[in-house]
# Entry
Amino acid sequence: MAVLRIRLEGDPVLRQVAKPVPRVTRRIRKLIHDMKETMYKANGVGLAAPQVGVSERVIVVDTGEGFLALVNPVIEYMEGTQVDVEGCLSIPGVLGYVERADRVVVSGLDEDGRSRRVEARGFMARALQHEIDHLDGILFTDKATMVWREESVDRVERPVEAAERLEQR
Ligand code: ZN
# Structure
C-alpha cells in the first residue's frame, strides 16, 4: 500500500467526469487499498479516485461505521434533506454549509467485484453524496450556500473556548 498525493482544487482532474470501471481488477484493488491508506493518513472520512489523480469511478468512505469501497457507485434513491458543515481534503481549510439528501440508497461493486447495495442516512449519506459528486467533477463549494475559511471560525470560537475554560475552574 502507498499513500498517494491528494490533488488540490485547481487541478483539472478534479473537474473531469470520471470513467466507469469495466472490471474490478488487481489494479483497481490496489487503487482502493492506496486510497484507503491515503484517506486514513489525511484523517478524512472519504476519498474519490480523482482526488488522487485517477479519473475512474471509485470511492472510499469511513464515517466511523467501518470502511466501505464502492466501484461505479450510483445513487438509486434519495429522500429528505439535511444541511450541515462539509469540508474536502482537496480544499484544505475551507468549510461550508451544503444541503444534501438525508437518506440515500447507493449501489455499486465492492473491491471483490460483487454487487453491493448500501442504505445510509445522516453523515454517512452526506459522505457518499460528496464522494460521488467528485466522480462527476463537482466540488462541495459548487453546492455550498455559505463557505468560509477555518481560521475565521477559530476567531469566533476562541472566546467561547476561553469562557468554557474559566467555567471549568
Ligand atoms: Zn471532497
